[in-house]
Amino acid sequence: MIGPLVLMAVAKLSSLALPRPPGDLLVLAEWVLGSGIGADFAGVGLAELVRGAAVSVAATLWMLLMSVAFALALVPLTDQSPASLLLALSPGGLSGVSMVALALGIDPAFVTAHNVFRVLLILIVAPVVFRLAGGSRNDTESAPGKAPQRRP
């Protein structure tokens, strides 16, 4: 996934005129991505889905509220539209936000660059914050797929 990202960055920086992908191709890509995500939920019980959905909705609303606040704060400081700033600062998968940017006519390079920066920042900052909060590298209590362990 990095190869096409680098290639597009070089093309964008060299001011090449880049055509928009056809709308039907975007719709097909959205269907494929959505089907892949939906397939991950096969075999999950209804109670677990409802619990997960409630937490996901709350977290999504909080993150979108923060994204809107930061986007509105940055509008007067940049030459970007509120929509492009909101999309660039919104949480989401790289492929998903890139396709939304294309569908809305927003520069996908701008959105992708900010999302890559956000992910890299989280990967660098989160371990430091975790250690400062008292966590250790061997702490498996909250690791995905691991049962919580009782401490003696």
Question: What would you note in describing this structure?
Answer:
With 152 residues, the chain is mostly helical. The chain has a domain at 48-135. Helices cover 67% and strands 0% of the residues. It has 6 helices and no strands. It has helices spanning 2-13, 23-39, 46-74, 82-89, 94-104, 108-132. Helix 2 runs antiparallel to helix 5. It starts with a helix and ends in a 20-residue tail after the last helix.
List the helices and strands and how they pair.
Layout: H1 2-13, H2 23-39, H3 46-74, H4 82-89, H5 94-104, H6 108-132
Give the structural class: mainly alpha
- In terms of DSSP E residues, the strand content is under 5%
Q: In angstroms, what is the radius of gyration? A: 19 Å
Low-confidence stretches: none
Which descriptor suits the 3D outline? Answer: globular
* Mean pLDDT level: 83
Count of discrete alpha- or pi-helical segments spanning 4 or more residues? 6
Number of strands: 0
Q: Tell me the helix content.
A: 55-70%
Distance between the termini: 45 Å
Spell the H/E element sequence.
HHHHHH
How would a textbook summarize the main sheet?
Answer: none
Task: Give me some keywords for this one.
about 150 residues; mainly alpha; globular
Summarize the structure.
By secondary structure, the chain is an all-alpha fold. The chain has a domain at 48-135.
